[in-house]
Amino acid sequence: MRPQIVLFGDSITQLSFGSGGWGASLADIYSRKVDVVLRGYNGYNTRWALFLLHHIFPLEAAKPPAAVTVFFGANDAALLSGTGKRQHVPLEEYKENLRKIVQHIKNQSPETLIVLITPPPICLEGRREYAWSLYGDKASSVPDRTSEEAGIYAEQCVSVAKELGLPSINLWSKMQETDGWQRKFLSDGLHLTPEGNAVVFKEVVKIFDKAGFSELPFDFPPNQEIDEENPGKTFLQQCSAVKSWHVRSTIRVREQQICFII
């Protein structure tokens, strides 16, 4: 069975299998090597995500995922004064919820590589235009999110990752390194354009490749490598190579976690 990468998050994860999405790009680059499993839930925050853990990551699973991305915070950081107030999660609770998510996944498998991803920055103008496109003059004039608030949650997401010895991607900071990020990376002031998805994809692949995913062999041999006289021998060798990678990758993930703890 192929190893699995589970993408766990909110709508930014749910939409990642669309055209140009970062999840679809991961499935493409690891085609025939890894099964990329999408578990993204539109509108969810970390409080609601806790109720999904035993369903998505059952402790009795025979084969836990090799890696998990945890991508929450955009909804947790919604303002209490705006239309997204029902999604708001206080900062300290957000941090504790991230810890609980990580702990549950580690209880399922200590070897699973977990990557925490922060919420992206927010473009207020883009959010206003999006609300107007949906509701016209009935759209609320009060912002539902701000980049400043998202930045506070992003900072604490990175802090939790450091505390737990995990790799993280500070998407909030990374995107703002590019001029014109508001339109280039965000389609509605929050969700990602193809270019924004490419930023996530690039940063996730850096971490996965460091853990050895780029070295993973195909689950079954390419057709041109199959010995037509003795095909069984070819498949036996390939299965041995896959098992060998699993052992090496487990060691590498452990070493990488030690590195992040230091």
How would you describe this structure to a colleague?
By secondary structure, this protein is α/β, with parallel strands linked by helices. The protein has eleven helices and five strands. It has helices at residues 11-14, 22-29, 46-49, 53-56, 91-108, 124-135, 147-164, 171-175, 181-184, 194-210, 231-261; strands spanning 4-9, 35-40, 67-71, 113-117, 168-169. Strands 2-1-3-4-5 form a five-stranded parallel β-sheet, sandwiched between helices. The longest helix has 31 residues, at 231-261. It is globular and about 70 Å long. It starts with a strand and ends with a helix. Residues 256-262 have low confidence and may be disordered.
**Tally of helical runs:** 11
**Residue-averaged pLDDT:** 90
Helix content: 40-55%
The secondary structure category is alpha/beta
- SSE sequence, one letter per element: EHHEHHEHEHHEHHHH
Shape: globular
Question: What is the strand content?
Answer: 5-15%
Radius of gyration based on Cα positions? 20 Å
Low-confidence segments, ≥5 residues, pLDDT <50? 256-262
The total of beta strands comes to 5
